[in-house]
Amino acid sequence: MSASPDTVRPDAGQGDPLLAVEDLVVRYDTPQGVVHAVDGVSLTVGRGETLGLVGESGCGKSTLGRAILRLIEPASGRIRLDGEDLSGKSRAALRPIRRKLQMVFQDPFGSLDPRWTVGQLLAEPLHVHGIGRRSERRDRVIDLLARVGLPADAASRHPHEFSGGQRQRIGIARALALSPALVVCDEPVSALDVSVQAQILNLLDDLQRDLGVAFLFISHDLSVVEHIADRVGVMYLGRIVETAPRAALWRRPLHPYTRALFDAVPDLDRPAERRTRAALTGDLPSAFAPPAGCRFHTRCPLAVERCRHEAPSLRAVGDPDHLVACHLAEPPSKTDLA
Amino acid sequence: MRNLSFQVARGETLAIVGESGCGKSITALALLGLFQPPGRAEGKAIRLEGRNLLGLGPEALRDVRGRRIAMVFQEPMTTLNPVLTIGEQIVETIRDHETVSRREARDRALTLLERVHIPDPVRRFGEHPHRLSGGMRQRVVIAMALACNPAVLVADEPTTALDVTIQAQILDLIDELKQGGMGVVLITHDLGVVAGHAERVLVMYAGRKVEERAATDLFATPLHPYTRGLIAARPRRRVEGGERPRLVEIPGTVPSLAAMPPGCAFAPRCALATEDCTVAEPPLTSLEDGQVACLRVGDFLAPSHSLPHVRLA
């Protein structure tokens, strides 16, 4: 397993980051063997910031999100929130910290009791953490509903009575109940129609502006991530292959995988052009036996001998905030800058 | 789904676009006569190469299905049989519709696997579907659909379950088949997919066609307020360094079939709706390059709106 010493430090100089993940490893033991779903990932999220995490299925982005909340136990690595180390803490010791860290899922009610009313669902986190008296909790529920654009009478209804977009509003309200500093959003708009997706993305934008909450926004959809993220990490087979501020990444993607991903996105703004893109050939390698060296080398159009046996670590190329794990990435030449 | 008319030419892709519940998948099932009671297709005709499919009995329809018109679904495992090898399934499909020897069917199956760019087809021929990735499975399904050289391929969200790099490969493959003269009906919720791969676009809302145009025209000058909303609601390439932009929302949600509003079904969500819009369903207006169903379309076509490609026919 790799132990990349590089840490993504985007907000260096602005004090401690809100979330700092260092060299996190998550393993799954399956009948077919061990999978390193997350293999030595380091990242930070600043206060009030949105870090977008993109990658295709099986890249480990959802596992990473769940491991940060300790919904999955990491095998090794450190997770610090607000300077406090979450790793190795017992469930009970974790509870006060967990208030600051919440999650929004693609299907907000997959794991919840469908017989509960929306009001009960929203009050439950408050109840668990012993916050407020009954009447205060009721007021808080009404506040939360208003916050996410739902009427007060929604409290007495059941989730199944709502549309997909409204259900996601309820899921967001539940995540906000404890006034968290960071919300991990795992594909929050992927199941929604485009018109409703826009409503939810605008809502998340409003909440960040008004409440200063930070988001770790996990998505397979690059256009959604470009819209919402301040910084972006690109994952491939359990590792971060590139990370940069949003504008820098789209201006000059450095990793061949990032470029292939960008090329593959259907672009509405250039509909007439039949783009001649270098489509990635082949499939994702098996997670049970990831390729040696750079994990992307089996699909990479540029791979050289070195890529087959030496794993590249994240390094800055030019811009100190723009890190890439590729042996071949070079600093921008003068002609690029011109 | 009501009063839907459209055509697909050889070597053309018609995209049917809409959000969940708009009736686009029902349209696909109707094309193939795959309704389960109490569902049923009524109407003037579904003509394929001059023949009316609505007049055919179940036997004749089954023959057309697979031989002249074939279908690819979102989830390849709905089509594939998990206990048979890839090869057996393609051979079976060929021999279902044609009297050919097992050997000839096998040769054709291998050619089909090559045609959909499955690497190492001889080895894949003997493998079961679960050994393949999602993208490879979808290629196998397309190979089965091509088994009898259909004139029309109906693809219902063929790439929705796939990763974006694999999606690009499958869409390129469908384009390649279209170049061979096949007509394609591509059903999707994703306007981005349409922009690169369809010649014409039909936008559906609440079971009706609201706009049908050449793809380039639709994206340059969308006319129906719903089409405009769909295009505007998509996140766009952002300008450097700017604030996070607001996305254009379409307020509310799609009406349920049980509670369809009177008049134009989109009126309750439409910023441009007038009282007239809530009275009668707007008729389809013919344009030089297509059709649109909106009472206010005359206003958009006024000279002040300067839409160069669009004129009432």
TrEMBL record, chain A:
CDD domains (UniProt xref): ABC_NikE_OppD_transporters
Membrane topology: Peripheral membrane protein
Gene Ontology molecular functions: ATP binding
Main localisation: membrane
Keywords, comma-separated and alphabetical: ATP-binding, Nucleotide-binding, Transport
Domain of life: Bacteria
Name this protein carries in UniProt: ATP-binding cassette domain-containing protein
SMART domains documented for this protein: AAA (SM00382)
Subcellular location: Cell inner membrane
Segments forming domain ABC transporter: 19-262
Higher taxonomy: Bacteria, Pseudomonadati, Pseudomonadota, Alphaproteobacteria, Rhodospirillales
Family according to the record: Belongs to the ABC transporter superfamily.
